[in-house]
């Protein structure tokens, strides 16, 4: 049996990730492709609840500590992600390790560089496709809905966008596809479907899931 694929959505807050992720999941489900939808942070676990409290401003965490909690929240899901993929299910995730690295690095803590932030992610399953929904922080803010959680501030989001670009340039960017998220919902959805379908059809069937490399 062909393994499932690992497809990830990334982008700023209000870039449309969650909406587009849901649309892709329903589209593939209707077509009979076995898919599972996840998101990070997964706020349902005990670690996820600590993250949620931090994001909502109810608790404080040292920068490295919260970074490692976000990473641990991915690692605790790995056995389940791998089991799904090995069972032929395509796993579609709203945010993954790219968010993990860039939001932490955007804090400008001198001992928390982009390269430091990536170390705990080494060895995680590597996405077969990463769909980056690109929008400026200014345009994202115009969509409304910012201001409730800790990172939803334009200055930080500007740095996040720049760091996404830096990461794309330094990481092996071969699985990374940038989609203009300023287009209409329908145009964005159609571009996503095209990339996702060619990823799912690609003959990676005999290739095992890869790992994030040092
Ligand atoms: N975020 C998300 C991180 O800082 N690190 C991570 O590893 C992940 C997955 O959490 F501001 C940030 C990004 C965002 C916040 O995410 C909550 P959602 O997708 O808006 O719930
Ligand atoms: Mg958010």
**Would you list the SSEs in sequence order as H and E?**
EHEHHHEHHEHHEH
CATH homology group: P-loop containing nucleotide triphosphate hydrolases
> Order of strands side by side in the largest beta sheet?
2-3-1-4-5
- Range of strand content: 5-15%
Average of per-residue pLDDT values: 95
Show unreliable segments: none
- Would you state the CATH class? Alpha Beta
Distance between the termini: 30 Å
Distinct ligand kinds = 3'-fluoro-3'-deoxythymidine monophosphate, magnesium ion
Question: Rg, please?
Answer: 17 Å
EC number: 2.7.4.9
Keywords: ATP-binding, Kinase, Nucleotide biosynthesis, Nucleotide-binding, Transferase
Pfam families: Thymidylate_kin
Family: Belongs to the thymidylate kinase family.
Descriptive keywords:
single chain; 214 residues; alpha/beta; Rossmann fold; five-stranded parallel sheet; 47% helix; globular; binds 3'-fluoro-3'-deoxythymidine monophosphate; binds magnesium ion
Descriptive account of the structure:
With 214 residues, the protein is α/β, with parallel strands linked by helices. It has one domain: P-loop containing nucleotide triphosphate hydrolases (Rossmann fold). The protein contains 9 helices and 5 strands, in the order βαβαααβααβααβα. The protein has helices at 17-30, 46-55, 63-75, 78-86, 97-105, 114-118, 137-142, 154-170, 185-201, and strands at residues 6-11, 35-39, 90-94, 129-134, 176-180. A 5-stranded parallel β-sheet has the order 2-3-1-4-5, with helices on both faces. Helix 1 packs across helix 9 and helix 3 runs antiparallel to helix 5 (97-105). The longest helix has 17 residues, at 154-170. The chain is globular and about 45 Å long. The two termini are 30 Å apart. The mean pLDDT is 95. The chain binds 3'-fluoro-3'-deoxythymidine monophosphate (FDM) and magnesium ion. 3'-fluoro-3'-deoxythymidine monophosphate binds at residues 13, 40-41, 55, 70, 95, 99-100, 103, 151.
């Amino acid at each position: 049996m062909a393994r499932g694929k690992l497809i990830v959505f990334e982008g700023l807050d209000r870039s449309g990730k969650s909406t587009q992720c849901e649309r892709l999941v329903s589209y593939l489900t209707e077509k009979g492709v076995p898919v599972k939808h996840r998101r990070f942070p997964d706020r349902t676990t005990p670690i996820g609840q600590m993250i949620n409290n931090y994001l909502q401003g109810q608790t404080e965490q040292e920068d490295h500590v919260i970074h490692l909690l976000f990473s641990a929240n991915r690692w605790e899901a790995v056995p389940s992600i791998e089991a799904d993929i090995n069972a032929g299910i395509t796993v579609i995730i709203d945010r993954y390790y790219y968010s993990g690295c860039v939001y932490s690095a955007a804090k400008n803590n001198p001992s928390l560089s982009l390269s430091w932030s990536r170390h705990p992610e080494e060895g995680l399953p590597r996405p077969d496709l990463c769909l980056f929904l690109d929008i400026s922080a200014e345009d994202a803010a115009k969509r409304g809905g910012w201001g409730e959680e800790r990172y939803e501030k334009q200055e930080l989001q500007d740095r996040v966008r720049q760091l996404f670009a830096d990461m794309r340039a330094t990481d092996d960017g071969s699985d990374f596809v940038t989609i203009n998220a300023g287009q209409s919902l329908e145009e964005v959805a159609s571009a996503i479907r095209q990339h996702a379908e060619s990823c799912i059809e690609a003959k990676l069937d005999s290739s095992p899931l890869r790992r994030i490399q040092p």
